[in-house]
Amino acid sequence: MYDTFDEQYAATIGIDFLLKTMYLEDNKTIRLQLWDTAGQERFRSLIPSYIRDSHVAVVCYDITNKKSFNNLDKWIKDVKLERGDDVIVVLVGNKSDLGNDKRQVTAEDMEALQKEVGARFAIETSTKANHNVKLLFKKIAQSLPEFGTNSDETEHRKNKPETIDISVDNTETASSSCC
Amino acid sequence: MDFIDFDSFLDLAKPGTTSNLPQPQPALSLPISSNIETFGKRFTNLNNLTRNLLSLDDKLNEPSQPHEPVRESELARKYAQLSIDLLKKQHQHQQNGDDGTGTDPSAVPATTSSSATASLSSRLSRVFNNQLNDSLTREIFNTLEDKFPETDSIKELIEPGSTGSLARKRLRGKVEGELVKNQTLVLKEYQPVMSQLKALEESLSRLNQLNESLNSKVDKNFETSNSFNSKIKALTDEKKMISLKKNLLIGFKEKFTLNEYEQYVLSSGDINDEFFQVLKKAEQINENCSILLAIDNPQLGLKIMSKINQLINTSIDRIISFCNKTLSNLYSLNSKSKLLTLHQCLRFLKNKLNYFNTIMALFTESRSKILIDEFLSETSTDGKKSGDHDSYHGGNSRPVFISENDTVRYIGDLLAYVHSVVVNETDLIASIFTIEGLDTQEKAEFDQIINQIKDEVLKSMARPVKSRINQVVSSETKLLTIYSIFNLVELYSLMLSKQLSSSNELLRTINELIKSSRDRILDVINSRFLTIKNSNLAVLELNFDLQPPEWIIEYFADLLPILDQIVSSSTSTSTVLNFNEKENKEFLSLIIDRPIEIFNEHVQTNKLFNVKQDQLILRQNFLDLILSKIIPISILSDKVLELNEQISGLTKELTQIQLDYLLKGCLLYDHFNIINMIYPFNDEESGDDFEPAIYEAIKENKLFNIQEMAKVNVLVQEFLPNALLEIQRSLLKLNSPMVVNDIVNDSGEEFVKFYHKFGLVVKNFLDFDFTWSQNEVSLLLGGQNEGVLIQ
Ligand SMILES: Nc1nc2c(ncn2[C@@H]2O[C@H](COP(=O)(O)OP(=O)(O)OP(=O)(O)O)[C@@H](O)[C@H]2O)c(=O)[nH]1
Ligand SMILES: [Mg+2]
């Protein structure tokens, strides 16, 4: 989410924040307020407070780590607990660059889960190879309710959507949200 | 020059001539004057001629002849006058010589007579002073003879009287006729030239006339053109001056005035690039005015300055109102051009600090107000949400409700809200006040301004946040809840420190909240202890089952989860709750030592426990409970050690009680004391090298005799077989089996050791043997240490 990639793992402390202005076709701009939540258990209690006011939850797992995928349930439950069905859930399988030799979660697994939890869409990305990252945010922007109806700048400032970016991270070096 | 001479002759012929004397030939008149005089005459003539030639007057055409006679006669008169003067002088001299008197009437006649003489003498001198030499004279006469051959007439000629005179007159007539003839001939030659000259004269005179008229015309023209020229010159000079003035004025205008359009731009035009250009110019003019102020009359400078100042002030007012208007309506800043204009305004105002600060103050004030209003409505405890604000959260944010059962969540939501306000406000302020295209210095200045505004705006949140959280914290009594709040606040302090500088009031407040929630933890613990300490119930709760009181169990039930969390969350720090070393120590002492203290007090004050062993067991059980709770907690390892020490101290005391019980039961208590008084046993001597002889002093004891020893021997065999059971029974209420074991073993071991050594002493001095060996006794008392003892 910072348009950079760092091989070094630096665990997110608490909640990181980023404002991202996106320019879409038709001269529409949209400002995304991104909260990058830490995956570590000890920060978990912070997250609900951010889900409260968010429109989209991007739930990430590591395709080379089955456990991180299995944990998604727990995170999605947290999201739904806060927002009910009034939220867009997006599944992201990260580290697709390692897809060939270390893959533990298949695309089918992902699609199945998407159906099961009613996620808006699911996508595999690689922040390392910068693959699908832009597309991810574009799709997020397009899936927002405000988008398409009134998307001039003023409206968006007012109805600024917030995006929760939940990193599922049990293995300390597992998934990623460094987009 | 002969003609000139001839002229003089003509002169004589004139009837007005005073001289009546006969003159034979005109040539004779010439030589009379001396050469020098002639020369002078000629010279004057020459001079005259030159003068005439040089002068442009029309005398040029005048024939010189008519003048000659005048001159001639004048000359004659002059000479005559000279002669007369001379005579006068002589006469005067004579008179002077006679009587020396001035003027004499007789002088006048003398003068008349002398004048007659002078004219005669001059006439004579003319004859005698003839310049003609003899040959010339001869030639003349020859010529005369040739011409006039009548010889006889010569006689007539020289004849006096009238005949002579007649003859002479005839000759003279002849000669003159001849002369006239000759001269006529000569003159005739000149006639054509004359006529030519005459013809020329006319054209010449015409030419002259023309010339003259031309000259006069030229003169006239010259005069007119001259005056014209001078006029022109004056005009050009004037023109030059005027254009200079004009340029000066243009320059002045350029430097010191604004044209109407520019004034219009400043006073009511749009605020845009042009506006700022003009404004810059106006300021430049103001600056330039310092030059005007320096001149003798500063009036002009003052006037211009006041006018320009007025304009500048109007412009500044307009800029300020633009800024204020724009900043109060942030939606308008979505227009890029508005934002750019705002940036221009800000850059302009930046050097006018008071204006700039006013704007910033107004902006921060309005932002602050919005933030506070929003915060209050978002976090209102009654859950009512007031009207639509310029909210970040749009319409569908849900207010942060305080919930009875989840204060931690409330604080979490509240802080998350603060977090989002901080990041959004940071972004907002940065987007408004980040100006592109600044040089590094200006950029640094604006960065600083951004930080200032940010700090100032967010400062407004500090108080409400503080009061909200403090309100919750201070009314909360559950340790775990407070601790969770503490954790939250601490975490947010960490997160916010990424966005805010350490001097930021909000961050400082959050840090204060960390402290106050921590203090609250201490408060809660302290007050809890205070209540317990003063609680009679807690004292009464202690009874003969010797079990630790309920409160300590509850206390640990509350404390342990916190400690667990502290252990799991604090990875790096060695202290808890971010305390420093000393505070940490105090805190640990509070949570562990303080309850022990209180408990001990309670035990002391409770009259029930007058049996020491009960007290000890009670305390032992208490410590044992605490130990069991804190043993797994790494941060309390020091406390565990301390507790172990206390426990082993208690164990020793209990062991001693048991030992005493054994000794007393066997009537060995006094002996044990005496032996220890003489020389205490120690472990090293427990071996074979024990020397009973050193205890010789024991013989002085009355009880140290065979009979007593026999009694002891009997008692040992009666008492000991049940002693172990008895001891174990008395320690039944001691919770830690390990400690019980220790006590039993230690006391038994101690007793056996003494029994053995005392046996050796008795044998040495009384030559008496106890029936039971130490092994047998040891066996009876538990015997685990058998191996050690059989050495
Ligand atoms: N090969 C590969 N490695 C990745 C990719 N994305 C992230 N990583 C690595 O995974 C590690 C963790 O990435 P982070 O983004 O910090 O993980 P996180 O989920 O944010 O962790 P928390 O903040 O603790 O929740 C880092 O060492 C990254 O270099 C990817 O697409 N491919
Ligand atoms: Mg992270």
TrEMBL record, chain A:
Localisation per UniProt entry: Endomembrane system
MF GO annotations: GTP binding; GTPase activity
Alphabetical UniProt keywords: GTP-binding, Nucleotide-binding
Membrane topology: Lipid-anchor
Location (main, coarse): membrane
Presence of the UniProt keyword Nucleotide-binding in the record: yes
InterPro entries: P-loop_NTPase, Rab, Small_GTP-bd, Small_GTPase
Entry-linked SMART domains: RAB, RAS, RHO
Biased composition regions of type Polar residues, renumbered to the chain: 168-179
Transmembrane regions: none
Protein known as: Ras-domain-containing protein
Organism: Suhomyces tanzawaensis NRRL Y-17324
From TrEMBL, chain B:
Domain Conserved oligomeric complex COG6 N-terminal: 167-269
Domain of life of the organism encoding this protein: Eukaryota
GO annotation (BP), single: intra-Golgi vesicle-mediated transport
Keywords (A to Z) from UniProt: Coiled coil, Golgi apparatus, Membrane, Protein transport, Transport
Assigned GO CC terms: Golgi membrane; Golgi transport complex
InterPro entries named among the record's database cross-references: COG6, COG6_C, COG6_N
Domain Conserved Oligomeric Golgi complex subunit 6 C-terminal: 299-781
Coiled-coil positions: 633-660
Membrane topology reported for the UniProt record: Peripheral membrane protein
Skewed-composition ranges (Low complexity): 105-120
Entries under SMART domains matching the protein: COG6 (SM01087)
Region entry Disordered, spans: 89-120
Pfam family, one: COG6_N
Localization per record: Golgi apparatus membrane
Chief place of localization: Golgi
Protein role: Acts as component of the peripheral membrane COG complex that is involved in intra-Golgi protein trafficking. COG is located at the cis-Golgi, and regulates tethering of retrograde intra-Golgi vesicles and possibly a number of other membrane trafficking events.
Family note: Belongs to the COG6 family.
Quaternary context: Component of the conserved oligomeric Golgi complex.
Protein name: Conserved oligomeric Golgi complex subunit 6
